[in-house]
């Protein structure tokens, strides 16, 4: 399998899952600025939408969208228990968390990375994200991970997007349960390996 990624972007989530599962893979870096691969290939020929992640299977089929990719990967290594079995209530709850992180948190960071955003737009985005993360913090007060007592692919997605708080000046220091959760995730060997490969750790 090939994972098309950009360092520190949301593609870090499936990268971590690949490390957690132990499945064989290769990384292909795709610039989010030039939309080219290191060999000069136009990334739009890989993903017409121009963004990462993209997972390419050995037979050439490609899977887009992080929440779909991480579930696919988890299902390739069921013994790792990174996603509940398909058809169970717990699996649907996991999909709910992936959807929440994607639509309520991930996408809300967009204005903070856009240099054209006004100060007012950025302030509104920070307020919105803070409110959503405060709710997540209250949920994590009740259990160690989003979906229960065991780590899941949703946890890695939340970890990745909350990594963006510091670069954009979003203060989450007061969210004690969220930060304890982030520490638990950050200390996992697979997470450290993926971040090191992307040049995010010294």
Automatic annotation (TrEMBL):
Superkingdom of source: Bacteria
SUPFAM superfamilies: GST C-terminal domain-like, Thioredoxin-like
Cross-referenced Pfam families: GST_C, GST_N_2
Domain GST N-terminal: 1-81
Gene3D superfamilies, alphabetized: 1.20.1050.10, Glutaredoxin (3.40.30.10)
Keywords associated with the record: Transferase
Single Gene Ontology MF annotation: transferase activity
Domain GST C-terminal, first and last residues per copy: 87-202
Protein name as it appears in the record: Glutathione transferase GstA
Source organism (scientific name): Comamonas serinivorans
